[in-house]
Amino acid sequence: MAGKTCVTKQDGAGPHNRPMHKVVLCIFSAVSLAACSPDLNWRQTGFEGTNFKTELPCKPDRTTRQVPLGGLPVDLQVAGCESGSAMVAVMTAALPPGADANAVLQGWQQATLANMVAQAPQRQAWARSGMLPLPAAQRVNAQGLRADGQAVNAQAVWSAFVEGDHVRLVHAAVYDRQVQTELADTLFESLKP
After folding, report:
1. Are 138 and 124 in contact (CB under 8 A)?
2. 18, 108 in Cβ contact below 8 A?
C-alpha cells in the first residue's frame, strides 16, 4: 500500500476515527491500487493457513494485516483486483475460539456500509453449503461514495464457517459505478469453505 498508513487506534474524535472505519478504508485503498488484465479471466485463489478458496475474475494482489474486528486482533487476509471498472475483493480472518462470530460479522458489515456512506442498503439472508446460518450472514446491495467522493455501487456478502476449533469469517465485495449482477453472483457462488 504505497504511501498509505493505516492507523487503528481509537481516539474518539468522530465516527471515521473508529478502528473498523480505518480498517475498511485501508482495505478499500489496498484493493483500489490493484490492477490486472485481461478482464474476467477467472482463476481459483486460496488463502494461507486455510482450505478456504474462491475464484476471482483477474490476477489478485494480496495483503495480510493484523486488524481489530469486534475488538479482537485478527490477521485479515485480502485478495483483490480490478476487472474492467469493477473492484473485486475477498477477505477472510480466523476468530479466536469462543468469539461471537455473528456480532463480529454484524459490526464488520455496519462499518463497511458506514465507510461508503451507504444509502438504504438492501439486505437479504445469504446461505451457502458449509457456511453457518447466522443472522448477520447477508448479501447487501448498496449505493454510496468512494473515498474520493465519487458515486459507487456495491454488492457484498458476509458469512462464516467452522474451521477446526475456531470460526473463519468471510467477506466478498464488488464495487463499481454499476455492478454487474452476474459478476457478483459468480464471485459469491465461488466461495468454498
Report:
1. yes
2. no
Please name which of 159, 160, 114 lies closest in space to residue 138, comparing C-alpha atoms.
159
Please spell the DSSP secondary structure of 123-150, one letter per residue. EEE---TTS---TT-EEEEEEEE-TTS-
Gap between the Cα atoms of 79 and 47, Å rounded? 8
Cβ-in-10-Å burial (0-12, 13-18, 19+) of 119 comes to: exposed
Provide the grid cell at 18. Answer: 473508529
**What is residue 143's predicted lDDT score, i.e. its pLDDT?**
97
Omega before 38 within 30 of 0, i.e. cis: yes
Per residue in 50-93, pLDDT (tens digit) is: 999 999 999 999 999 999 998 899 999 999 999 999 999 999 99
Cell 483500489, located at residue: 32
From CA 147, how far away is CA 28, in angstroms rounded? 8
Taking the whole predicted model, whether its pTM rises above 0.90 is answered as no
Query: Could you give all domains of the chain from N- to C-terminal order, each with its CATH number?
Result: 15-189 (3.40.1000)
Amino acid letter for position 126: W
Backbone phi, psi, residue 185, to 5°: -60, -45
